[in-house]
Amino acid sequence: xxxxxxxxxxxxxxxxLARFHAxxxxxxxxxxxxxxxxxxxxxxxxxxxxSGERHAPRAARGLAARQxxxxxxxxxxxxxxxxxxxxxxxxxxxxxxxxxLGLLSSAASxxxxxxxxxxxxxxxxxxxxxxxxxxxxxxxxALFLDTQIYGIFRYHFNGMVWNVLTTPGADEAVHIAxxxxxxxxxxxxxxxxxxxxxxxxxxxxxxxxPLRPRWFGRPAFYWSAxxxxxxxxxxxxxAHADLIRDRQVMSLARLYPVYPRVTIKRLARDWFGYVxxxxxxxxxxxxxxxxxxxxxxxxxxxxxxTPNILIVVVDSLRADMLAPATMPRLxxxxxxxxxxxxxxSGGNGTRFGIFSLVYALHGSYWKPxxxxxxxxxxxxxxxxxxxxxxxxxxxxxxxxxxxxxxxVRVEDxxxxxxxxxxxxxxxxxxxxxxxxxxxxxxxAERPFFGFLLxxxxxxxxxxxxxxxxxxxxxxxxxxxxxxxxxxxxxxARVFNRYKNAVLYSDSVVGAILDALEAAGELxxxxxxxxxxHGEEFMENGFVGxxxxxxxxxxxxxxxxxxxxxxxxxxxxxxxHADVAATLLERLGLDPALRASWSLGGNLFxxxxxxxxxxxxxxxxxxRVDGAILExxxxxxxxxxxxxxxxxxxxxxxxxxxxxxxxxxxxxxLECRRFLR
Length: 676
Hints:
Blueprint: H1 4-22, H2 29-32, E1 33-35, E2 42-44, H3 57-80, H4 93-124, H5 128-153, H6 159-166, H7 178-207, H8 219-244, H9 247-251, H10 265-272, E3 308-314, H11 328-334, E4 338-340, E5 343-344, H12 350-359, H13 366-372, H14 377-384, E6 388-393, E7 414-415, H15 428-440, E8 448-454, H16 479-483, H17 488-518, E9 525-531, E10 536-537, E11 543-544, H18 551-554, E12 558-561, E13 568-570, E14 574-575, H19 579-586, E15 612-615, E16 619-624, E17 627-632, E18 641-643, H20 653-659, H21 661-670
Parallel strand pairs: 3-8, 3-9, 4-13, 5-14, 6-7, 6-8
Antiparallel strand pairs: 1-2, 4-12, 9-12, 10-11, 15-16, 16-17, 17-18
Helix pairs in contact: 3-4, 3-5, 3-7, 3-8, 4-5, 4-8, 5-7, 11-17, 15-17
């Protein structure tokens, strides 16, 4: 039975609901109601139409996502503080402001993609908490790993790092201890758990937060009052530094992984009449340009000499290792050879060091040669002259991609990942296989070209126990420890481990020479023993290689044995780019043809005016008198930087560039000579 009062109550309720919907607030039953345990009726939770109105569940998730974003900007700032360990002391208030605003700005910039994705996930993905926790954990992990990369090599996650991660065989070039992997994995899991806890707590608090919280509860306030102004001020400081050529401030832009180099030179010139000085630059060819190499056919004379040629490259072998204590066998052999005391590699990594050695070109040519899979003239000429070839290594010839470049025409003769026979050793398998190969040759009268790459002093510095002469030494190479500022004792222990590995490689070199002599070939063989690049142990604040163009990473031993030459020392400056022409001209090639296929000279007649050029992944290092010019190979890589021999930015960089305009002009021509 229905009473009149009950009818009025129902009508009143209907009018309230009508006003509720007319106000534009609509919600799904799943967001606004939940079944009760008594009677199963739904009760309304949000929103409340009064001064204490609260967020609906979806709105609460959105507020929590924005707050989580802000918290993670703080976490990214803390992780990114690792970059400050390797920053120079600020020399001015502007440098200090740029340094610390840069950290905050970089963290905020890095957070934007993840922050937007998590906000989108709150609208599209119901179980968005797990996804948000995963995305923020991945972002923090990526930044942490980048701080470790920068701590060792002083560059960020770039094309080279991606090349390592995606190229088969790269595991032979990069060694990471299992303990380090475990530490990173455990750390990532803990961060993931922390993110989940934060999300749960923030959502509970957001559900009880008024729709208009106080200013300190609004993420938009911090973006508008702190983060965006910091980014704008930082951009202005850099633009002004670029305008007035303040190199100390400009160099700090490399410290952080995300920083847009905004310049105002054109605006200052066109709108304010600012007079800009000419700034040296080197224009490199765009991707996709075809090769024009060689400029003319290169062939050895049919009646020229045909000695065997054996090149032995020891990975990461720095010049000061050629000493009786660390390389007794090679030091003894060097007494009967030509020793080049001022010899530089053409690269601060294996890829470009070997490329310059066999191609006689700068590393700027690597990409087009790889794309076209073009063989070097050195190999082509030897094959046409009838040379037998062999390439052997304990590492991989797929990373770097030498099977598609240097050895593309002789790929069937490449033997890689040869196993060592001594516990802890890597390279004695190369010596064993080379000895076997010498005995298997069908035509002993046919000349041969051999290229052997020994890998023990690279990466984790491997050696058998009997070569543990230098003590105390590190039991393993911990890159996490090296990246976070190692002590002098830590560095000394790692250096001792490296020297033990060099001592082991020296024994392999000696055994290779013994095998050559036992086969009766030594007296008719040109033997070259060198390194593909050097290795640094904090001499200039770095560890390893690929990070700068100082002597520690470029100066390598170079021993050249030729039965037709007397033993001697050569102290004129030479480089790997001079090797290929020296060999082919020794076999009778006309030196007048050199410029048609080579950028190098002859080891025994070096050009004193020629700059020695070494390549990194995205820049070239040019050695000039008392300075090193770092020339970016990409337009977005910034301007040419000038360093001293300890890799410190020179304040008089503009003067150095002005004095070396001819060198840069020559470099620009050389880097385009063999492109169409």
